[in-house]
Write a structure and sequence with these properties.
single chain; 408 residues; alpha/beta; 17 strands; binds adenosine-5'-diphosphate; binds magnesium ion
């Protein structure tokens, strides 16, 4: 695929032009406090380049999953305020996405300023499956750019979505690939072609079926797949172990059994934990104990126990595999790292990544937040991706609508 780059757009000249930029400002919030501003920081360079060159920048972004109408808790206000604190340029926020506020703010925008439009998902047409509905919304977004606009997609975290602000606007305006999307794609390419071996993939997190899909495509490509997080219990169940009250997707058991069989033939090794930290309940202060992975129901909590982390033996075994790798991709925390008592596995994996003599990539919103809240810094890793779902779909070998639409 070939893309027009942001530098080409800047070379064309952007002073005084309205440039629509799709950014990824989908940050975790605690009330109105941004708890991890990684995506905002990652969005800054493109906005800075454009404003330095005199563009009038209209930023579209989503936050969370509102149901197609405005909801205060999904407002981009906290994200826009944080952006304003970090930025050298002036930032304002419209009260709506394509309504009277957006229009007024847009017409008042000066060269070198940024206007953030409210959450695009406050309009149900953004994510509509109906092409005509999305098109109508895209037309209204594009209308804000006047008659000499252009579009820059810099929201890697959304490139797997065929949404109006990602896909349809790109069919209506001269379109360019933002630097963040460019970097992310370059990194992912290294994980799919001429990958340095051993190539170790670490998978965890809570969205079991989302994560299982990527395994399909990694069998035969990765040398080793380390399985942690909520998904590990479906793996334990697949080899006949009981998992008590742990996260389990029963309907995926045959799928996992098939993976295990195929992996053996394809030379990919699955490493499943041998010990588990089991808790009495899902809480920070829950009683807990470490038990063998084939004896979860033998814990003091019996069939009520919930596995919330991989045990220390498993963490050590995972760390060894990681340290012997030349390439590591990690998506999904090993346990419920938000609770100190269940953060050991995630911490051990993060630590091993920082010590490995390898190209290391961390993908996934919670995984990125985990390494930061556990006290690691971004530069200890080869790359921290801003896109969880997008990077997984890329590794699954799927077509990403937000990328193909930029291809020429
Ligand atoms: P990412 O955003 O990095 O892709 P996910 O969203 O899939 O990761 O999953 C992150 C969540 O998974 C974390 O909030 C963590 O608490 C949860 N998690 C990890 N292990 C378990 C487990 N054993 N049981 C329940 N939740 C888990
Ligand atoms: Mg997540």
């Amino acid at each position: 695929m070939t893309f027009h780059t942001l530098n080409e757009l800047i070379a064309e000249g952007v002073r005084g032009r309205y440039i629509l930029v799709r950014s990824d400002l989908n940050v975790p919030l605690d009330g109105s406090t941004v708890t991890d501003d990684g995506r905002i920081k990652a969005s800054l360079p493109v906005l800075t380049k454009l404003t330095d060159a005199g563009a009038r920048v209209l930023v579209t972004a989503h936050l969370g999953r509102p149901k197609g109408t405005p909801e205060e808790k999904y407002s981009l206000k906290p994200a826009a305020s944080r952006l304003a604190e970090l930025a050298e340029f002036k930032v304002s926020l419209a009260d709506d996405t394509v309504g009277s506020s957006a229009k007024e703010h847009a017409s008042a925008l000066q060269d070198g300023e940024v206007l953030v439009l409210e959450n695009v998902r406050f309009d149900s047409r953004e994510t509509s499956k109906d092409d005509a509905e999305r098109a109508a919304f895209a037309d209204e977004l594009v209308a804000l750019t006047g008659d000499n606009g252009a579009f820059v997609d810099d929201a890697f975290g959304a490139v797997h979505r065929k949404h109006a602000s990602v896909y349809d606007v790109a069919t209506r305006l001269p379109s360019f690939q933002g630097d963040l999307v460019h970097t992310e794609v370059e990194v992912l390419r290294k994980l799919t072609a001429d990958t340095q071996r051993p190539y170790v993939v670490v998978l965890g997190g809570s969205k079991v079926s989302d994560k299982l899909a990527v395994i399909d495509n990694l069998i035969g490509k990765a040398d080793t797949i380390l399985v942690g997080g909520g998904m590990l219990f479906t793996f334990l169940a697949a080899v006949g172990h009981k998992v008590a009250g742990s996260l389990l997707e029963e309907d995926q058991i045959p799928v996992v059994q098939d993976y295990l069989k195929r992996a053996a033939d394809a030379g990919t090794e699955f490493v499943v934990p041998t010990d588990i930290v089991v808790a009495s309940k899902f809480a920070a202060d829950a009683d807990h104990e470490t038990v063998p992975a084939d004896g979860i129901e033998g814990s003091s909590f019996g069939t009520q126990g919930i596995g919330l982390d991989i045990g220390p033996d498993s963490a050590a075994a995972f760390a060894d595999r990681i340290k012997g790798a030349r390439t590591v991709f990690w998506n999904g925390p090993m346990g419920v790292f938000e609770f100190e008592a269940f953060s050991g596995g995630t911490r051990a994996v993060a630590q091993a990544l920082t010590e490995a003599d390898a190209f290391t990539v961390v993908g996934g919103g919670d995984s990125a937040a985990a390494v930061r809240t556990l006290g690691f810094s971004d530069d200890q890793f080869g790359h921290i991706s801003t896109g969880g779902g997008a990077s997984l779909e890329y590794l699954e070998g799927k077509d990403l609508p937000g990328l193909t639409v930029l291809d020429r």
